[in-house]
Amino acid sequence: MGIHRLNHAVLFVSDLARSVAFYRDVLGFQPVPMTPDNFSGAVFLQAPGSTNDHDLGLFEIGGNAGPSGAGRTTVGLYHLAWEVDTLDELSATAARLAEAGALAGSSDHGTTKSLYAHDPDGLEFEVVWLVPADRLDDAALAARKRIGRLDLAREKQRYGGQTRGGVGISVPA
C-alpha cells in the first residue's frame, strides 16, 4: 500500500461547538457542508489551502466523556502532525496557539521544527516545518538523534522565514 499523505483525521470531542471554534479561530480550519442531514453531532473541517475534501472530522460524544487516557492508562493515538509551508507560518501559528493557551511546547529535531499543542479536550497535535532536501546538511541530519530547544528566530535566520519547507521530502521538488 503506497501512502501519499494523511487525508483526514476524526476526533471524538466532548463539546462540538467549542472544538469547532478552536480549530476555526486558532488554526484557520473552515467547516465544510458535508454532514448528512439526518446526522447531528459532527462537523467536518478543511485546513487553509488544503486539497482534501476535509482534513478533520469532529464527532461530539458529550460533556460526560472522560479525558483520553492514551499513553498514560490506555493505548491510543499520541498525536497528529500537520505540516506548514514556511517558518514564518510556524511562528505565526506558535503565537496564535500561545494566545489561546494551547501551546504545550516546541522542539528542534534537526530536520524538523515542531510545535506541540492541545485542543480544548486535551488532544495533542503537532505543527511542523520540514527542512527542504536541498538544505539538509550533516548538522541537521545528526541532530535527528536528539531533541533540542526550538529557536524560531535562529531557524528563520538560517533558512529564511519564507523558504518553502519539505521540498524534495514531503513536497515534490
Characterize this entry briefly:
It is built from four helices and eight strands, in the order βαββββαβββαα.
Question: Mind explaining what this structure looks like?
Answer:
- 21% of the residues lie in helices and 24% in strands.
- The chain is an alpha/beta fold.
- The protein has a four-stranded mixed β-sheet with strand order 1-4-3-2, with helices on one face.
- The mean pLDDT is 93.
- It is globular and about 55 Å long.
Strand content: 15-25%
Radius of gyration: 17 Å
N-to-C SSE series? EHEEEEHEEEHH
Mean pLDDT: 93
| Sheet with the most strands, sense and barrel status | 4 strands, mixed
Number of strands: 8
Report the structural category.
alpha/beta
**Low-confidence blocks of residues:** none
Order of strands in the sheet with the most strands? 1-4-3-2
- Shape annotation: globular
Distance between the termini: 23 Å
- What is the overall number of helices? 4
For the structure shown, list the relevant keywords.
4 helices, 4-stranded mixed beta sheet, 24% strand, single chain, alpha/beta, 173 residues
Itemize the secondary structure elements and their pairings.
Blueprint: E1 9-13, H1 16-25, E2 30-32, E3 42-46, E4 56-60, E5 80-83, H2 87-99, E6 103-108, E7 112-118, E8 124-130, H3 138-142, H4 152-159
